Amino acid sequence: MYAIIDIAGAQFKVAQNDKIDAPKLAGEVGATVELEKVILLAGENGEVKVGKPYVDGVKVQATILGHGQDKKVQIFKKIRREGYTLFKGHRQQHTTLKIDAIVG
Fold it and tell me: pTM of the entire structure?
């Protein structure tokens, strides 16, 4: 059984006991989070439920394992023959989740 869920505009294919790095969520480490935006649910017998836009009555329960940052994305701008260069970096924050159960 697996589900496709929407977390802050990003879609993830999850099954029980999976670990994913999702965009930053509010909550303490060890807290339980219920994710209700389930786009697709596939059962063990091959049955598939597709939501319009979300499947009703289905939730994904997850535990927050930690918060962190992704690798640095480097931003470089240059205007030729002007002596202008700009070099910046950005690290996006994320939350590591462990999928406990798909309920529904």
Answer: 0.82
Three-state SS letters, the chain: CEEEEEECCEEEEEECCCEEEEECCCCCCCCEEEECCEEEEECCCCCEEECCCCCCCCEEEEEEEEEEECCCEEEEEEECCCCEEEEEEECCEEEEEEEEEEEC
Backbone angles phi, psi at 34, to 5 degrees: -105, 125
Cα–Cα distance for residue pair 21/76, rounded to 1 Å? 26
Domain that residue 11 falls in: 2-103
Number of domains composing the chain = 1
Q: Over its length of 104 residues, how does the chain's per-residue pLDDT go in tens digits?
A: 999 999 999 999 999 999 999 999 999 999 999 999 999 999 888 899 999 999 999 999 999 999 999 999 999 999 999 999 999 999 999 999 999 999 98
